């Protein structure tokens, strides 16, 4: 089994994440042009329920597998690794079958009574196979990440994205003549096809690695404190707190969709318009904001096994080094995206979606993006350091505040969907700050204020350069001017980061393939 270092593993997932994000914008751009914002709204309305059910199935189990497997591997206990995998797979399959049955049984009632638009029923029915497919895939990903081999996860993500893009656009176009609700269901069918492709990659990789490991000597450590602990009991002990923490976020997302729709109705906004506004927010604006999370997700995925291994060895110095690396990379990588989205919200929305009227939403949420990018490494650190209960409480506080604000603000006619957006912003900032305080309390880690000052100064210079280039309009086509402004100002930003010693050639040298030129 190929094992990567923390940074190399993170960069492998980052490369896959960047490819996925870039490819993922193909349907984000094309789908609204095929089925419109209202169709995107129907497609997005199904996701909160899917997220809740997947949280029950996969919420904490993959992370528990990753953490426990990394600990067992560091001690040479290959027998325990197999026990962890088999128990987790059995538990996940049982949960997936139960959740699938529940969705099939209550789909009609949910779409009729809880949601304000019953046309989402077709999408609900199409997405039911995802419970089992994603559940099984998550166990394999957790296992590979626990072995600190990020390549299978990265490869499966890319395959899933490619198949999903082709399938979603093709099925949506084919089913559009039957109505917008069937077109939205067609887009979801493409998601199902993509997840099947990802699972096939993971199964093939596992079968290949298992064939190699069967010939290797088996080891079991008799002096492990968990040796006599039943695998299922400890697996549940590790996964339930994390599942609870993520369930708060998933239920918050679900209640957010329900309360937003009902609050917009209370504000006097028609059902179709409300669905279109929700689709624009969740299907167009927020995906743009989450583009840099390709990095933060990869950092968080690599951070869990790395911190778990360091904590098992009592290596506090490595814990602080890993935290500083991940937080610094998240800050440096996310900052230029914030600048671009805030400055050029109107041309971005017009060029990507042909809907310039949604640009104010992007401009309002863009500055909050930096908190999102820092949140993932902080939450991963709390989970890796056996503090999932703290992450749960922080998430719960943020969710409660958000839901109250949605009801208070989105129901006001003068605010409408912007009231929901303000509530989301407050939630993001609050949870990130609470996570940062918790990490400081537990391990004494905090970001250097000077790092924020340097990055902030570079953002100002980058923004000024980008605005000047757009105002001069050196070329006739707006989209070329936009890309040119972003590229040149981005290069200037990176040079400033190097000049101010936030990053150096040794950081670049850790990147696979590209890094060999800087060693």
Rg calculated over all Cα atoms: 23 Å
The main β sheet shows up as:
none
**Which blocks of ≥5 consecutive residues have pLDDT under 50?**
219-228, 510-515
The percent range for helix content is over 70%
Number of helices: 20
Number of strands: 0
Mean pLDDT: 81
What is the H-and-E element order? Answer: HHHHHHHHHHHHHHHHHHHH
The chain-level structural class is: mainly alpha
Distance between the termini: 26 Å
Q: Give the amount of beta strand, in percent.
A: under 5%
Overall morphology:
globular
Task: Describe what this molecule looks like in 3D.
The protein contains 20 helices and no strands. It has 519 residues and is mostly helical. Helix 4 runs parallel beside helix 9, helix 11 runs parallel beside helix 15 and helix 18 (449-472) runs antiparallel to helix 19. Mean pLDDT is 81; it is low at 219-228 and 510-515. It starts with 5 loop residues before the first helix and ends in a 10-residue tail after the last helix.
């Amino acid at each position: 089994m190929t094992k990567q270092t923390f940074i190399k593993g993170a960069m492998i997932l980052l490369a896959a994440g960047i490819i996925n994000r870039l490819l993922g914008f193909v349907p984000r751009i094309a789908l609204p042009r095929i089925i419109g914002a209202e169709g995107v709204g129907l497609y997005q309305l199904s996701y909160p329920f899917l997220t809740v059910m997947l949280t029950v199935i996969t919420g904490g189990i993959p992370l528990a597998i990753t953490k426990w497997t990394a600990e067992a591997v560091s001690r040479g206990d290959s027998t325990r690794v197999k026990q962890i995998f088999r128990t987790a797979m059995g538990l996940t399959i049982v949960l997936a079958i139960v959740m699938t049955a529940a969705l099939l049984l209550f789909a009609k009632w949910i779409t009729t009574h809880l949601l304000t638009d019953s046309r989402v029923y077709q999408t609900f029915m199409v997405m039911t196979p995802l419970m089992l497919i994603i559940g099984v895939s998550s166990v394999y990903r957790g296992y590979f990440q626990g072995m600190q081999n990020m390549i299978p996860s990265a490869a499966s993500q890319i395959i899933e994205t490619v198949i999903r893009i082709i399938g979603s656009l093709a099925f949506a176009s084919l089913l559009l003549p039957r109505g917008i609700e069937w077109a939205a269901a067609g887009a979801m069918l493409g998601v199902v096809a993509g997840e099947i492709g990802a699972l096939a990659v993971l199964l093939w990789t596992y079968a290949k690695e298992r064939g190699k490991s069967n010939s290797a000597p088996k080891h079991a450590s008799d002096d492990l404190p968990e040796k006599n602990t039943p695998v299922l009991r400890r697996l549940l002990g590790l996964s339930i707190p994390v599942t609870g923490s993520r369930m708060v976020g998933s239920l918050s997302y679900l209640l957010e969709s329900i309360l937003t729709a009902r609050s917009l109705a209370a504000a006097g906004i028609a059902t179709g318009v409300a669905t279109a506004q929700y689709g624009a927010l969740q299907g167009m604006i927020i995906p743009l904001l989450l583009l840099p999370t390709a990095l933060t997700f990869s950092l968080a995925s690599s951070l869990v096994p790395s911190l778990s291994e360091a904590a098992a060895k009592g290596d506090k110095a490595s814990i602080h080094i890993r935290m500083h690396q991940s937080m610094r990379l998240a800050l440096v990588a996310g900052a230029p995206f914030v600048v671009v989205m805030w400055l050029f919200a109107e041309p971005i929305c017009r060029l990507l979606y042909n809907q310039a009227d949604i640009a104010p939403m992007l401009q309002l949420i863009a500055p909050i993006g930096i908190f999102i990018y820092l949140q993932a490494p902080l939450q991963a650190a709390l989970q890796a350091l056996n503090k999932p209960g703290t992450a749960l409480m922080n998430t719960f506080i943020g969710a409660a505040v958000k839901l109250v604000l949605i009801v208070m603000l989105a129901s006001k006619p003068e605010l409408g969907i912007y009231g929901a957006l303000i509530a989301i912003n407050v939630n993001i900032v609050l949870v990130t700050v609470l996570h940062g305080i918790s990490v400081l309390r537990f391990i004494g880690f905090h970001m250097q204020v000077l790092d924020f000052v340097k990055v902030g100064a570079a953002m100002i210079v980058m923004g000024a350069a980008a605005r000047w280039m757009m105002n001069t309009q050196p070329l006739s086509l707006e989209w070329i001017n936009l890309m040119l402004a972003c590229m040149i100002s981005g290069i200037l930003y990176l040079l400033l980061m190097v000049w101010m010693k936030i990053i150096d050639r040794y950081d670049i040298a850790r990147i696979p393939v590209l890094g060999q030129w800087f060693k």
